[in-house]
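#lab-general

N.A. 3:47 PM
ok so I finally got the sequence cleaned up, no stray characters, all 334 residues accounted for. can someone with queue access submit it? mine expired

B.Y. 3:52 PM
send it over

N.A. 3:53 PM
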Amino acid sequence: MRSTLPPRAERTPRENALLAWDLFIMALVIVNLALLLFDSLFLVGPLNDAFAAVAPGLHRAYTENIHANFFSIDLVFVSIFVFDVLLGWGMAIAERRYHRWFFYPFVHWYDVLGCIPLAGLRWLRALRIFSLMFRLQRLGLIDVRHWSLFQILAKYYEIALEELSDRVAIRLIGNVQDEVRRSGALSGRLVNEILMPRKEQLVEELTQRLQSILSDGYSDNRALIARYISALVGRTMNENPEIQRLRRLPFGDSMTNALDQTISGVAAQLVHEAVTSLESPEFKELLQNLADSGFDVMLETDQRTNQITEQVLIDSLELIKEQVAVKQWQNRYN
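B.Y. 4:20 PM
back already:
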């Protein structure tokens, strides 16, 4: 029987009765399994002879009262277990715990099969202990996470799971590498089957990013760009022979300084006007044409491109294999 009790909360008398019944079933299963184990060992000749030699009276009493009537005794346990299954099934139907009323015996198949009094199925009753322990854990009555046995089992379970998953992952990555080596036309397939169908969206995204980069870059560095243009114009004028001859004329310095400032201002204004017009439809069309042409150039493939692409992919997968092969559990438990 499986009921739903609130963990670590005030329980009603009905809930306490259900909990007591679960504990009773757990104790009964332990006793039944102990009896099954002892009777199985009783059938082993050397152990039977040793038992008779050490405790002949107890051996005779067990043989006459228990072993001779073992099937009938087991039927007593089975009748209680069958009642427990029927009671749990009825509660599951009343609580609408499952989507259909007949799901219970399939979910608790180990309880149903354990009720069959056959030697091979009797040991399934041990699974009932684990289900009841899980229930007690959920109720907060026990905490198996603090048990030494649980911690040891959890440790080696994690180690085994990690080792198994790592080997599977390495094998799969190795198969992918082999497939890439055999394909021979990976770059062409990437272009034709993945990139080209999305060319319009990719060009649009590239255009928007270029606009954003130019606009944001100019806004953040406007003063620096203006100083650079002024320095560039001044250096050009200083190196120009015609400007040098102009400086030697009367009022030449004033004229050249005014000319320097005018050219610098015009250049800075041109840059500013060019950047502020980035949002215009004309400039966006220009960027789209450039991005479209560049996209086509980048997607041109040949044998050398295929080899480079495949080698990059193979080396990347090899790096992933090396990372997967690292035994992380050694770092956790050292």
